[in-house]
Specification:
Number of helices: 1
Strand content: under 5%
Order of helices and strands: H
Number of strands: 0
Radius of gyration: 31 Å
Shape: rod-shaped
Helix content: over 70%
Distance between the termini: 102 Å
Keywords: Membrane, Transmembrane, Transmembrane helix
Largest sheet: none
Structural class: mainly alpha
């Protein structure tokens, strides 16, 4: 039978398991931090690409507008 009233906290059997878990936690934290940095860089790159696409679209429209004006002026 188990003692349901036992409220003792479980302690690790040795100190090595405690250090391994803290190393694992710090490794996971650094991994998540690097993923957050990567997400920020990719988000910034996505915004930059979007802005550059709009600039390219506008410049293409301006070029074709000048070409149309020159074509109509030559007639």
């Amino acid at each position: 039978m188990t003692n349901l009233g036992n409220t003792e906290s479980r302690t690790p059997l040795n100190a090595e398991s405690e250090t391994i878990s803290s190393k694992t936690i710090s490794k996971n934290e650094s991994h998540y931090k690097s993923l957050l940095k990567l997400a920020a860089v990719l988000g910034g790159a996505r915004i930059l690409i979007s802005i550059l696409r709009h600039i390219l679209d506008i410049s293409i429209m301006i070029i074709f507008s000048f070409m149309a004006v020159l074509y109509l002026a030559s007639k």
